[in-house]
Design brief:
The complex is a heterotrimer of chains A (189), B (338) and C (510).
Chain A lengths: L1 H24 L7 H8 L13 H9 L12 H12 L17 E5 L9 H5 L5 E2 L7 E2 L19 E5 L12 H6 L9
Helix pairs in contact in A: 2-3
Chain B lengths: L18 H23 L2 H24 L3 H5 L3 H10 L8 H16 L12 H12 L1 H4 L2 E2 L9 H9 L9 E2 L2 H10 L4 H6 L4 H23 L6 H20 L7 H6 L3 H8 L10 H21 L6 H18 L10
Antiparallel strand pairs in B: 1-2
Helix pairs in contact in B: 1-4, 1-11, 2-4, 2-5, 4-5, 4-6, 5-6, 6-16, 11-14, 12-14, 12-15, 15-16
Chain C lengths: L20 H4 L4 E2 L5 E5 L9 E2 L6 E2 L4 E4 L7 E2 L4 E10 L7 E9 L23 H10 L12 H4 L6 E6 L8 H24 L3 E7 L3 H11 L6 E5 L8 H9 L14 E5 H13 L5 E7 L7 E6 L4 H7 L7 E6 L6 E3 L12 E6 L17 H5 L6 H9 L3 H6 L10 H5 L6 H56 L5 H16 L7
Parallel strand pairs in C: 1-14, 9-10, 9-12, 10-11, 13-17
Antiparallel strand pairs in C: 2-8, 3-5, 4-7, 5-6, 7-8, 13-14, 15-16, 15-17
The chains are: A mainly alpha (189), B mainly alpha (338), C alpha/beta (510).
Chain lengths: 189, 338, 510
C-alpha cells in the first residue's frame, strides 16, 4: 500500500516538474495586452468610461484598475470581445457610464455658429475644421459621435444626428428575428 | 392600385426533401435486411423492433416535454424510430423487454437529449444504447438462436421469453459465428478446424446473405443521395487495410478480409450505422477517414478485444474523433489553393 | 457550328426543372408605356447619380436626367414627359427600404421617336479607339444586365485575353436572354465584337446552355460561318451561368477567392449587355429598355416583354393578363435567387430580368425549421465548394473570425444549399446576415483605426505645442533674469513689435 502511495506521489511530482519546466521553456511572447484591448475599443475618445481616452482605459483594464463594462460606444459586442480576450465573464454595461446609443454624428447649424473654435478644441479626433471667426464644419467621416463638442458650444448650435441609414448600411437581420418581425407589408400612398 | 404581398426569402421553391423523408428512406432501405434476418432468426426480431420503437418514442416525448420543445415536429421526424430499429437489429430475437427499454432510454435520453436533441448528439445514439446493454447485460445479449432451419421458437415461447423472463438458456442457444471464432481462436484452434466445426458452416453462409441484403439497401440509399459514398468505401478500406496484413501473415489464425467484410454487422455498419450524419464527419475526406477508422478499429477489436463484434465501440471511438477530422481535412474552397 | 473546346466541370450544382416554356413559347412583345415611370438613382452598392432636373421640368426621350458620380450609372429619361417628383419610392431591394427615385409622368400623346435625343451613331466603330468607345458606353448608362448592374465601362477598362459572353441562363423560369438571342442574335454578336475591340481579347466565346437550341440556331445564323466568336454549349446545370462557374467550365481556371475574373485574364458579360453596347455605339441609343420575362402560375398570360426601364411591375403584370386568383408572391428574378417584393409598385430597373408570380401551392410550406442534422447535402451542391453547414453554425454563434476564414465572401447566394436542406434552414438568409455583419464590422474597425490615428496625431500636436510654449517661456525667463528690464511692459511691447516685423503678420492661434 505504501509503495502505491509513494509511486503515485512520485509520479505526480515528476510530471508537475516537467510541466513547470515546459511552461518556462516554451513561453510565448504575446503582443502586449494593452494593444489588444485598445484594438477592441471603438476609439470614440469620448471619456464616458471615466478615463481621458480609449488608450488610458485600455491600460487601466490591463492593470486591473477598471472593469470591462464601462464603454457605452463599444456596447454589448465590445464587452463580449473584451471578455473573450481576457478570459472573464461578460457582464452588462455599467449604466453609470452611459447607455449604448445608435451611431450618431455631430452637425453644426451654420446659421447660428459664431466661429469661437471651442468645439474644435474639444474634438478629440480633429473632426471639426474651421478657424476663429470663420465657419466651423464637422467632417462626417471623421466624427466618432463622442458628444464632447456639444457642451462647450456657447450658442448650442451642435446637434447629434443619427449616422447614415438606408440601403447602403442596411444590416440583414438574423433569420429567426426576421420571421418574427412583422415586416411583410409596405404601404404605398 | 398597388397590391401588397407576403415576403419570403429565396429560394422560392417547395423544399426538396425533409428530415422525415430522409429517415423514411433509411427505414425502407433497412427492409431487405430485416426480412432476411426474420427468415434466419425468426419473428422475434420484429417484436424487438416494435418494443424498441415504442420505448424510443416514449423517451423522446418525455424528454421533449421536459425540455419545453414542441412535440409534433420532433416526434414526426422519425429519427427515434431509426435509432430504435438499428438498436433492435443488434439484439437477439428473444431478449427480454427491459433490454430494449434500457437501451432506448440510454440512446434517447443520454446520448441524444442530454447533448441537445436532434442534430446535437456527439455519439451515435443507437450504438450508445447497445453498448450500455452489452456491458451491463452481456449474458442476455449473447444468446443467439442456432441457424438451423426450424430452430425458431414458437410464438408462445417467444412471448414468454421476452415478457415472462423465461430465457431459453438450454434450448438451442448458440453464439454467433464471430463469437465462436474468437472463443475458439483463443483456445488455440486454427481457422480450418473452426470452420469445419458444427457451429460455423451454415451460419457463415447465412451471414453472407444477410450482408447482401444490407448491401442492397445501402446501395439504394447511395443512389438516393441519403448517404455519402465516402463512409462505406472508407469502412471497406479500413477493414481490408487491417485484416489483409494479418491474414497474409498467418492465414491459419486470422480471418480473411472477405470474412470480416461479410460477417457480423460490417455491412450494416458501413451503410447504416457509420453513416449517421450528426455524429459522423462533415467533410468528404473526413468521412473517408472516419469510415476507415471504424473499419480498422472493428477488425482490431474483433481480433484482440473482449467482445465478439467491434462495430459499436469502433463507431463510438470514431465519433469522438470526428470533429478533429473535420478540422484537419477541410476541403478546398473554389478559388483558393488550399 | 459549336466549338469543340474541352469543357471542364464545376463542383456541386443541381439540375433543376426549367419552367421556361411559358416565357419562351411566343415571340417577345413590346410593353406599352405606363403613365408613370420610376427611375431609381442608385445601384444600391455604389453612389447615387447626381440629379440634373427638378420637378416640373419637361424632358425628352433619351435625355440625361442624372449623371453618374463615382461608381454609378447615368440615368436617362426613357420617354418624353415631365418630372413629377424626386423622392423616395419602393425599389426592388431585399431590405424593402425606399430609395431616391425620379418620378416621370409620361406624355400621353408622346411621339416617342420623333424628338428623342440620342448620341451620334458610331457606324465606323472598327476605326474608333477604345477610349471613345468606353466613353460612349458610360454616357449611355450601360450596366451589367445579368443582374449585378455593375457599370460596364468600368468593367471593360482592363486588357484581357478571353471575353466570355454569358448566355447560359441557368435559373428556372427566366428566359429573357434566350429570347434576346433568338430575336437579336446579330446585335449580341456585334456588341461582342465591339467589346473585343475595346479590351483586345484574343478569344471570344458565346456560351449558351445546351437546351437553348433555338438560341443556338439563331446565333449560328447570325455568325454565318465567321469564326471570330466561338459558340459553346454548356450543360444545363444550375448555376452554370454564374460567372465563376462558367469560367471554370470553359477554361478550367478558377477566379481567385475574393478576386475578379480580370485577375486571370478573363471578362464575362451578359448577352443583354452586349446588345446594349451595340445599340449605344452603332445606333446611339442610351439604355432605355430590356427584355423581361413575366411568368409563373400567378399571371394569366406568361411571356417575355421588351420593357421600358422604370415601368412599374404592376403595369407590366396588367399587360401580361393580370394576376390569377391565388397569386401569392411576386419575385423579381428567378425562383432560386430572386427577391420577393412587398408591393408591385416597384419599377423594373436595369438589372431586372424576370417577374415571377407564384401561387400559394408553389411556395414553400412554412414548416418549422428543424436543427441541422449535418447531412452534408449543402456542401455537396455548393458551387463555391464551401461548407454551408459550418458557416451557418459560425454565423449563428457570431464567431466572425471563423466565418471569415471559412470564406463566406465567396458565397454566390445561389440558394442551392437552402433548397436541399432537409431541416428547411433558411441558409441564404443566414449568409446575407453574416455578410452584412462582416462588412459593417470591417467598416467599423477601419473607422476606429482612423480615429485612433487622428487622436494620436492630435495628442502629439498638442504636446509639441505645449513643449514649444514651455521652451519659449523658459527662454524668456532666462533673458529676463540676465538683464532685468526696468519696464517689463515696455520690453514686452518691444518684443511684440520685433516679432511682427519678422513674421510680417499677426500670429494665428489655434
Amino acid at each position: 500500500m505504501i509503495e502505491a502511495v509513494l509511486a503515485l506521489s512520485g509520479l505526480g511530482v515528476l510530471l508537475g516538474a516537467l510541466l513547470g519546466w515546459a511552461a518556462v521553456r516554451f513561453r510565448r511572447e504575446d503582443a502586449p495586452l494593452v494593444d489588444a484591448i485598445d484594438r477592441i475599443l471603438p476609439q470614440t475618445q469620448c471619456a464616458q468610461c471615466g478615463f481621458p481616452g480609449c488608450r488610458p482605459y485600455a491600460e487601466a483594464i490591463a492593470r486591473g484598475a477598471a472593469d470591462i463594462n464601462q464603454c457605452p460606444p463599444g456596447g454589448e459586442a465590445g464587452i463580449q470581445a473584451l471578455a473573450a480576450l481576457l478570459g472573464r465573464e461578460a457582464k452588462p454595461l455599467d449604466a453609470t457610464h452611459g447607455s449604448e446609443q445608435p451611431a450618431r454624428v455631430a452637425w453644426i447649424d451654420e446659421a447660428v455658429c459664431i466661429g469661437c473654435t471651442k468645439c474644435i478644441q474639444a474634438c478629440p479626433v480633429d473632426a471639426i475644421i474651421g478657424a476663429p471667426k470663420l465657419m466651423h464644419t464637422v467632417l462626417i467621416d471623421a466624427c466618432t459621435g463622442c458628444d464632447l463638442c456639444v457642451a462647450p458650444c456657447p450658442v448650442d448650435c451642435i446637434y447629434m444626428l443619427p449616422a447614415s441609414s438606408g440601403i447602403a448600411v442596411w444590416r440583414a437581420p438574423r433569420p429567426a428575428a426576421a420571421r418574427l418581425q412583422n415586416i411583410t407589408f409596405l404601404r404605398v400612398p | 392600385m398597388a397590391r401588397e404581398f407576403r415576403l419570403g426569402g429565396a429560394p422560392h421553391l417547395p423544399a426538396a426533401t425533409s428530415v422525415q423523408t430522409v429517415m423514411l428512406k433509411v427505414l425502407l432501405a433497412l427492409l431487405p435486411g430485416i426480412a432476411v434476418s426474420v427468415i434466419w432468426f425468426g419473428v422475434g426480431l420484429l417484436l424487438q423492433i416494435a418494443l424498441a420503437c415504442v420505448f424510443a418514442l416514449l423517451a423522446e416525448a418525455a424528454m421533449l416535454q421536459l425540455r419545453g420543445r414542441p412535440l409534433r415536429p420532433f416526434l414526426s421526424d422519425l429519427s427515434a424510430p431509426v435509432a430504435a430499429v438499428l438498436f433492435a437489429l443488434c439484439l437477439p430475437p428473444w431478449a427480454p423487454w427491459w433490454i430494449a427499454a434500457i437501451g432506448m432510454l440510454s440512446a434517447i435520453v443520454l446520448a441524444k437529449h442530454l447533448y441537445g436533441g436532434l442534430g446535437y448528439n456527439v455519439f451515435n445514439p443507437a450504438m450508445v444504447g447497445y453498448v450500455v446493454v452489452l456491458i451491463a447485460f452481456t449474458r442476455e445479449l449473447s444468446a443467439w438462436p442456432a441457424l438451423a432451419a426450424g430452430s425458431a421458437l414458437a410464438p408462445g415461447e417467444m412471448l414468454h421469453a421476452v415478457f415472462g423472463g423465461g430465457q431459453p438458456w438450454d434450448a438451442m442457444a448458440q453464439a454467433t459465428p464471430l463469437d465462436t471464432l474468437r472463443e475458439q481462436l483463443g483456445q488455440g484452434r486454427t481457422l480450418a478446424e473452426i470452420r469445419s466445426g458444427p457451429a460455423f458452416a451454415s451460419a457463415a453462409v447465412r451471414g453472407e446473405w444477410l450482408a447482401l441484403a444490407w448491401l442492397l439497401g445501402g446501395l439504394w440509399l447511395l443512389q438516393q443521395r441519403v448517404i455519402h459514398w465516402q463512409v462505406p468505401v472508407g469502412v471497406a478500406v479500413g477493414v481490408i487495410a487491417v485484416a489483409a496484413p494479418l491474414w497474409l501473415y498467418d492465414s491459419g489464425r486470422h480471418a480473411s478480409p472477405l470474412f470480416h467484410l461479410t460477417s457480423g454487422a460490417t455491412v450494416l455498419a458501413a451503410f447504416f450505422i457509420a453513416t449517421e450524419p450528426v455524429s459522423g464527419a462533415a467533410t468528404p475526406r473526413g468521412r473517408l477517414l472516419f469510415g476507415a477508422g471504424v473499419g480498422a478499429l472493428c477488425v482490431l477489436i474483433r481480433r484482440y478485444g473482449a467482445y465478439p463484434d467491434g462495430i459499436a465501440f469502433a463507431v463510438l471511438l470514431m465519433n469522438a474523433v470526428a470533429p478533429l477530422l473535420d478540422r484537419w481535412l477541410h476541403p478546398r474552397v473554389f478559388g483558393r489553393s488550399k | 457550328m459549336s466549338s469543340s473546346i474541352a469543357l471542364h466541370g464545376f463542383h456541386g450544382g443541381l439540375r433543376l426543372p426549367g419552367h421556361k416554356i411559358a416565357a419562351s413559347a411566343a415571340s417577345s412583345r413590346a410593353c406599352p408605356l405606363p403613365p408613370t415611370l420610376i427611375l431609381p438613382l442608385g445601384q444600391y452598392g455604389g453612389s447615387l447619380a447626381q440629379v440634373l432636373v427638378a420637378p416640373g421640368d419637361r424632358v425628352r426621350r433619351g435625355q440625361l436626367v442624372a449623371r453618374a458620380d463615382g461608381l454609378a450609372a447615368n440615368v436617362h429619361a426613357p420617354a418624353a414627359g415631365s418630372i413629377v417628383a424626386i423622392e423616395p419610392r419602393p425599389v426592388p431591394h431585399i431590405c424593402g427600404l425606399p430609395a431616391s427615385c425620379i418620378v416621370l409622368a409620361v406624355d400621353t400623346d408622346a411621339d416617342t421617336d420623333d424628338r428623342a435625343i440620342c448620341f451620334p451613331p458610331m457606324v465606323e466603330w472598327q476605326q474608333a479607339d477604345a477610349q471613345s468607345l468606353l466613353e460612349r458606353i458610360a454616357d449611355a448608362g450601360i450596366v451589367g444586365l445579368g443582374g449585378a448592374a455593375f457599370p460596364t465601362a468600368t468593367k471593360l477598362g482592363y486588357p484581357i485575353e478571353l471575353l466570355v459572353i454569358n448566355g447560359a441562363e441557368c435559373e428556372p423560369w427566366i428566359a429573357c436572354d434566350q429570347m434576346l438571342l433568338r430575336e437579336r442574335a446579330q446585335e449580341v454578336c456585334t456588341g461582342a465584337r465591339i467589346m473585343r475591340q475595346i479590351v483586345g481579347a484574343t478569344r471570344v466565346v458565346l456560351a449558351i446552355e445546351d437546351r437553348m437550341q433555338d438560341a443556338a440556331e439563331a446565333v449560328r445564323a447570325a455568325l454565318d460561318s465567321s469564326t471570330d466568336i466561338e459558340l459553346v454549349e454548356v450543360p444545363t446545370i444550375f448555376p452554370q451561368g454564374g460567372e465563376r462557374q462558367l469560367i471554370r467550365v470553359l477554361t478550367g481556371k478558377e477566379v481567385p477567392s475574393g478576386g475578379y475574373p480580370v485577375d486571370i485574364g478573363v471578362l464575362c458579360h451578359n448577352v443583354g449587355t452586349a446588345a446594349a453596347v451595340y445599340r449605344a455605339i452603332v445606333r446611339g441609343e442610351p439604355l432605355l429598355e430590356r427584355y423581361v420575362s413575366v411568368t409563373g402560375h400567378g399571371v394569366l398570360a406568361a411571356g417575355t416583354w421588351r420593357v421600358t426601364i422604370g415601368t412599374p411591375v404592376e403595369w407590366l403584370i396588367a399587360q401580361a393578363g393580370g394576376y390569377s386568383g391565388d397569386a401569392a408572391r411576386v419575385v423579381l428574378g428567378g425562383s432560386m435567387t430572386g427577391t420577393a417584393i412587398a408591393t408591385d409598385a416597384v419599377p423594373i430597373v436595369k438589372a431586372s430580368n424576370c417577374v415571377l408570380v407564384l401561387t400559394t401551392d408553389q411556395l414553400r410550406d412554412p414548416a418549422p425549421e428543424l436543427p441541422c442534422i449535418r447531412c452534408g447535402e449543402c456542401a455537396r451542391v455548393c458551387p463555391a465548394q464551401l461548407l454551408p453547414q459550418q458557416l451557418h453554425w459560425f454565423i449563428r454563434a457570431a464567431d466572425w473570425d471563423a466565418v471569415e476564414s471559412h470564406a463566406l465572401i465567396d458565397c454566390i447566394e445561389c440558394g442551392l444549399c437552402a433548397q436541399v436542406c432537409p431541416s428547411h434552414i433558411p441558409l441564404v438568409d443566414w449568409y446575407r446576415h453574416g455578410k452584412t455583419e462582416l462588412h459593417l464590422r470591417a467598416d467599423a474597425q477601419q473607422r476606429a483605426d482612423a480615429a485612433r490615428k487622428r487622436f494620436e496625431a492630435r495628442t502629439l500636436r498638442l504636446a509639441q505645442a505645449q513643449a514649444e510654449r514651455t521652451e519659449r517661456l523658459a527662454a524668456r525667463q532666462a533673458v529676463d533674469e540676465e538683464s532685468p528690464a526696468s519696464d517689463p511692459i515696455a520690453a514686452a511691447v518691444q518684443r511684440a513689435a520685433a516679432r511682427k516685423r519678422s513674421e510680417g503678420g499677426p500670429e494665428h492661434g489655434a
